[in-house]
Amino acid sequence: MTTWTTVDEVASMIPDGSALALIRDGCGVAMSATRALIRRGVRDLRLVNVPTGGIQTDLLIGAGCVAELETSGVSLGEYGPAGRFAQAVTSGTLTLKEATCPAIHAGLQAAEKGAPFLPLRGVLGSDILRFRPDWRVINNPLNDAAEDPVVVIPAITPDIALFHCAMADDAGNVWVGRERDLITMAHAARQTLVTVERRYPGNLFDDAALAAGTLSSFYVTAVAPAAEGCKPLGFTGHYGEDEDALRAYAKASRRDAEFATYLAAYATAPAAV
Description:
The chain is of the alpha/beta class. About 30% of the residues lie in helices and about 25% in strands. The strands form two sheets. Strands 1, 2, 3, 4, 5, 9, 10, 11, 12 and 13 form a ten-stranded mixed beta sheet that branches.
């Protein structure tokens, strides 16, 4: 049964060393929970970006929370490079598992289906195969007549999926709307933790207009209310991004001393910095 709780309690449910799946910027990034994780001092996280990372990933790396990262890329978009990510990769303090967007989706979909792997052709011939010995090239077992290579991507089963949504009902059903990757994440992960803008009165599945975009509480471990829980990122249909805050973060992320000052203010702030 889904538990309604607080953002700080959600952070406490993510143990050190967890494999944590995080959604890409603009699709429901749980920034309030990220602040709580940093404040708690979580360590040795193994992040899985679905399929890319931004300020959330960069912050967690800079705060010393991350040991390993599987990603298709980390960037602050129009605000520039992700400074803490770049510094960690350059200094060798982060184990990086390079991936592609289709490969991460394939791994999650395999876990969602209870399969050990899914086949993928798009990375054949790519140098990325040199750095991913866990991705195996095999011959298509359904084609005995000819050489027909495919890459098999192992299932990605995160310990926890963490994201932000517009609303959840009393039973813990969560409305994800059009962000279907959130459903895949929840299906693949062992637990799912969600922050929401508000609590929905009634049952989301009783409304035909909302039911199709609703994730069943069967896949949701806990939900916490967090108004404006994506800030400084925007949340479609609710609020835009805080351009000044994102620009300030991008600048601070490039230098150790400036980032340390930013992080101290961010981790203790009651609202988005």
